[in-house]
Design brief:
This protein is α/β, with parallel strands linked by helices. The chain has 17 helices and seven strands. The strands form two sheets. A five-stranded parallel beta sheet has the order 2-3-4-1-5, sandwiched between helices. A two-stranded parallel sheet has the order 6-7.
Length: about 325
């Protein structure tokens, strides 16, 4: 089932007993898992909505205790509402454990019994990144659960909703409906490009309360690289949106981060003395920091370079826009 179809079930108050949310898109999975709470009146969620993290349920006693708590939560009757919701995060730990003890084996048998005979008044939501689809429990889930692939976008409406969800998850700004629609139209259903475009938008609008259509037009665009020096030319002109866009195009085309850092270093050495002499020291510091972070793998190279580009552009901007 698609996430959109699950949302319709939630809105209608007619969920299935068990869901397995799969996929690499953590934002999509978390957002969908949270929406199951809407099955319970807000004032009664403290008694009827339970969230369990299974990351530490590895082997032996921990696994036995963890599965026991899940079964107990699922078998508990709802209080003053028709249904309870139990969400298990990092469920891949449960579905493919190391069976190193009798306690672990008994725990898996107990979980299998719950999956085969779910509690009719509870909706159990299992959230997993990836699991071994050859395993016994997954075969049970194929027969008993509704399996939802998150991060798979079927049309532009899905892409637009994905953009809104991603921006909302960042928590710093809202996005205009027309802006979210434009991002979806430009990127299509390519989740990789959508994620890159939204991440650049959030960086570009850092400190702002609203992401607008103008912001989208400044940062996103057709995937066609103009020339190898378009990014540095944009930095010289203080055009942060264009610089971020050109950086993304270079990275998407396979340019090594070290080569891009070298270009940025050339801009600082060759252009800053005339364009922004007061910004030379901060720019050099930012270059050294980024170089060190790249060498020690202290972050995603794309994010590190985007941050550096924003810092370099900030000193050149004629307007006083905040970042």
């Amino acid at each position: 089932m698609t996430p959109a179809a699950v949302r319709k079930q939630i809105a209608a108050g007619a969920p299935d007993p068990i869901y397995l949310l799969l996929g690499e898109d953590e934002v999509e999975k978390s957002a969908l898992a949270a929406e199951f709470a809407n099955l319970v009146d807000e004032g009664l969620r403290a008694f009827n909505v339970e969230r369990i993290h299974a990351g530490d349920f590895t082997t032996g006693d921990k696994l036995a205790d963890g599965v026991g708590s899940i079964v107990a939560a699922a078998r508990t009757l709802p209080m003053m509402v028709p249904r309870r919701v139990v969400t298990v995060m990092q469920a891949e730990t449960l579905l493919a454990p190391k069976r190193e003890s009798d306690a672990a084996t008994r725990a898996m048998d107990q979980l299998e019994s719950l999956l085969k005979e779910p509690e009719t008044l509870t909706t159990l939501v299992l959230v997993a990144t990836s699991i071994d689809k050859r395993g016994r429990l997954f075969r049970v889930l194929q027969r008993r659960a509704t399996i939802v692939e998150c991060g798979v976008l079927e049309d532009l409406a899905d892409a637009e909703r994905w953009v809104r969800t991603r921006v909302a998850a960042a928590g710093d700004a809202a996005i205009d409906p027309a802006a979210a629609r434009l991002v979806a139209q430009r990127a299509g259903t390519d989740v990789r490009r959508l994620r890159a475009d939204v991440d650049r938008l959030l960086l570009y609008t850092l400190g702002e309360k609203q992401v607008t259509v103008d912001d989208v037009r400044a940062v996103t665009g057709p995937a066609a690289l103009q020339d190898d020096w378009a990014m540095t030319n944009a930095i010289e002109g203080g055009q942060a949106g264009e610089a971020l866009r050109q950086l993304a195009l270079m990275l998407d085309a396979g340019a090594p981060p070290e080569k891009i850092l070298g270009q940025l270093g050339w801009v600082v050495r060759s252009k800053f003395p005339a364009l922004a002499p007061a910004e030379i020291r901060p720019a050099v510091d930012a270059l050294f920091r980024t170089d060190l972070d790249l060498k020690r793998s202290a972050g995603d190279p794309r994010v590190l370079l985007e941050r550096l580009v924003v810092e370099l552009c900030a000193g050149k901007r004629v307007s006083a826009r905040r970042w």
